[in-house]
Amino acid sequence: MLNDLVLVFNCGSSSIKFSILDPINYKKYLFGIVERLYLSEAYVTWCINNNTQIKILGNNITHHQALKCIIEIIFTKYDDLVSKIKYIGHRVVHGGNELIQSVIIDDTIIQKIQKNSVFAPLHNPMNILGIQASMQYFPDLKEKNVAVLDTSFYHFMPECAYLYAIPYKLYKKYHIRRYGAHGISHFYVSKKASRLLNISFNHLNIITCHLGGGASITAIRNGVCIDTSMGLTPLEGLVMGTRSGDIDPSVVFFMHDVLGKSIADIQNILTNESGIFGLMQGLTSDFRYVEQKYYSSLQAYRTMNVFCYRLSKYISAYTAALYGKLDAIVFTGGIGENSALMRALTLSKLEFLGFKIDNNLNYNLDNKKSRFINKENTTPIIVIPTNEELVIAQETMQLFL
Question: pTM, whole model, 2 decimals?
Answer without folding.
Answer: 0.89
